[in-house]
Amino acid sequence: MKIITIDGNNLILEDVVKVARENYKVELSEEARERVLKSRKIVDSIVENNKVVYGITTGFGKFSDVTISQDDCKTLQRNLILSHACGYGNNLSKEIVRAIMLLRANALSKGYSGIRLETLETLIEMLNKRVHPCIPEKGSLGASGDLAPLSHMVLPMIGEGEAEFEGRVLNGKEAMNEAGIQIIELTAKEGLALINGTQVMTAVGALALYDSINLLKISDIAAALTMEALRGIEDAFYSEIHRIRPHAGQINTAENILSLTEGSSFITKQGELRVQDAYTLRCIPQVHGASKDAVNYVKEKHSIEMNSATDNPIIISEDIVISGGNFHGQPMALAFDFLGIAVAELANISERRLERLINYQLNDLPAFLVKKGGLNSGFMITQYAAAALVSENKILAHPASVDSIPSSANQEDHVSMGTIAARKSLDIVKNVKRVLATEIMAACQAIDFRDNLNLGKGTMEAYKVVRQNIDFIEEDKVMYKELDKCTELINNGSILEAVERKVNLKY
Fold first, then answer.
1. What are φ and ψ of residue 277, in 5° steps?
2. Ramachandran region of residue 44, left (φ > 0), alpha (ψ -120 to 50) or beta?
3. In angstroms, rounded to a whole number, what is the distance separating the alpha carbons of residues 409 and 62?
4. Per-residue model confidence as pLDDT tens digits over 325-335
5. Could you read off the pLDDT of 206-263 as tens digits, one per residue?
6. Where are the alpha helices (DSSP H) in 268-379?
7. Whose CA is closest to 205, among 90, 300, 107?
8. Domain boundary at 197, 226, 249, which?
9. Where is this cross-link: 5-imidazolinone (Ala-Gly) (predicted)?
10. The predicted structure's pLDDT at residue 63
11. Is 202 helix (H, G, I), strand (E, B) or coil?
């Protein structure tokens, strides 16, 4: 059985993807169980001794000065979930919901939230039995955590809301019953513990980040294919030029291009056909490399966030219960804005390489890469579609983190908009996949117009995968279907896996 053990400290990005996309099961470590039990004893003591502690024996937000009696603690926590579940828009995908549930469980397992063990185990049981709450994508400010969407996550746990189970959307109570999971009654601190965290933005960002890392490699493969199709100059990738400007991403990209094109007779040397290439070929290491460095920065910050306690108040001991601001999503808001900008640039330069492939004024190939131009349009409008996606990305890349709207009667007067930043970055990633797929397909088409030349050891593998699935475009056909095929070769990892059997690509 495929199982991920969580303890609040050691979750990695690949674990999130396994649970989200491959339905790995989840279990708590014994150490985590002990920490959760210890933290819960502190909450019970606070309630029994009528201490005034935010979120446990008080209201929330601006109502923090309203003391709640011991008898009303359960009502307080239930009302919190009901009132805060006010999201809007399309529901988040199943894989994002699974990532959210995993990340919230991991944060709670650190033992600083005061949740009961049985409540945490209910959340994990839902994940393992694939009861997926319906969570609207919009409604989070990204400070005081992802309150609205996480409340929707909790609704089925208390028999409310809706959830998807075995392919059907059911009301929360029915979904839990059919899965054989007991509905719970929230007690002191538990509602707040479940929803006051950054797990929605972190989950959306996790999948965007994972796909971005793969796109960094795909972008190098696409660029190398275009380099060969246009008979690019390899000198600009020699290590001598990059070690004197030693950005890691730049160095790695240059090495990747040389490795991918090793043994190629398409590639030329400086002065052989021309003295220098246009920037979109010559500056591939500098542009792709900068995106690699940015994505690696995001990965570092994301790794910290996945294994952090991000709720409020934080329970350290019976005498130390601190109302702080770990729920504020600013570290992730900035990171995901950066991620979106970095990945958008991969499409920006890719689309310009696509233009060089199809524009007969910029190469020695048939116009729009088709034999009977005029009667056929070939790849003409693929560039239009790619340009539209690139332009959309420029709008999406506007940072969300520079915005803030005060909430809760100005008690919560600065918020991060981190969940919007994460959602935008994921949209950008999807657009970039299509642009890179278009470049790859056009580059393979261009390559087929050249005779008696050999591809490099890495590019040959990419070319073979494409040609096994997509034919040379002899005459116009329904183009989106061909582009869909190439996009799927990126989505399912076929191109990357084939290339990496021959070349160790760095990012």
1. -95, 165
2. alpha
3. 6
4. 999 999 999 99
5. 999 999 999 999 999 999 999 999 999 999 999 999 999 999 999 999 999 999 999 9
6. 279-282, 284-306, 330-358
7. 300
8. 197
9. 143-145
10. 80
11. helix
pLDDT at 98 over 80: yes
Whose structure tokens read 């997509």? 470
How many domains in the chain?
Answer: 2
- Exposure class string for 225-259: b at 16+ Cβ within 10 A, else e: bbbbbbbbbbbbbeeeebeeeeeebbbbbbbbbbb
3-state secondary structure labels for all residues of 371-439: CCECCECCCHHHHHHHHHHHHHHHHHCCCCCCCCCCECCCCECCCCCHHHHHHHHHHHHHHHHHHHHHH
Q: What is the reported pLDDT for 372? A: 95
- 173: tokens are 């109570």
What is the domain-level CATH number for residue 125?
1.10.275.10
Residue 234's CATH number: 1.20.200.10
Query: Angle between the 199-229 and 459-469 helix axes, to the nearest 10 degrees?
Result: 100
Count of CB atoms within 10 A of residue 424's CB?
25
Q: Any idea which residue has 């009977």 for tokens? A: 372
Kindly give the residue spans of alpha helices, DSSP state H, lying in 161-247: 172-179, 190-195, 199-229, 239-242
State the catalytic residues.
54
Please, which residues bridge with residue 170 across strands?
163
CA–CA gap between residue 155 and residue 162 (Å, rounded): 7
Worst-scoring range by mean pLDDT, 50-54, 153-157, 353-357? 50-54
Cβ of 333: how many Cβ atoms within 10 Å? 29
The reply to whether omega before 313 is within 30° of 0 (cis) is: yes
**Residues 66 and 45 sit within 8 Å (Cβ to Cβ):** no
Bridge-based pairing state of the strands 136-138 and 88-91:
antiparallel
Task: Name beta bridge partners: 132.
Answer: 164
Q: Which residue type, as a one-letter code, is found at position 486?
A: C
Of 208, 90, 98, 197, the residue nearest 148 (C-alpha): 197
